[in-house]
Structures are given as C-alpha cells and as structure tokens.
Design brief:
1 helix, 59 residues, 3 strands, alpha+beta
C-alpha cells in the first residue's frame, strides 16, 4: 500500500507525518497532513517555517 509522507521545508519527515493510504482514504489523509503542516509550521515559526513550503510525497 502507498504511504503519504509530510516533508518539512528542509526535506525531513514531520513526526506523525506518515500515513498508509488506500484510494478511498487518500483524500482524507492529504487533508490531515495539510492540517499537520500548519500546526508544525506554527510550532517552528521562530525558525522561519511556513506551511506553504511543506510537501506531501507518495512512497
């Protein structure tokens, strides 16, 4: 099964940023990872992180 991974602006996988998906669960998983990107970027704002610079990749 494919896995979605949320990568921070430096290219590292965000903790809790890995979700195994099926074709029916992928849209919901992408939405959850986008929300995680916003949360993670807020926590790391002092380092200049912006949620728009995060990427979701399929492995």
């Amino acid at each position: 099964m494919p896995e979605l991974r949320l990568l921070d602006p430096d290219g590292y996988v965000v903790p809790e940023g890995r979700i195994t998906v099926t074709p029916t669960t992928e849209p919901k998983a992408r939405t959850a990872l986008q929300a995680l990107a916003v949360d993670h970027a807020d926590r790391w704002a002092h380092a200049g992180y912006d949620h728009r610079n995060y990427r979701i990749v399929t492995t």
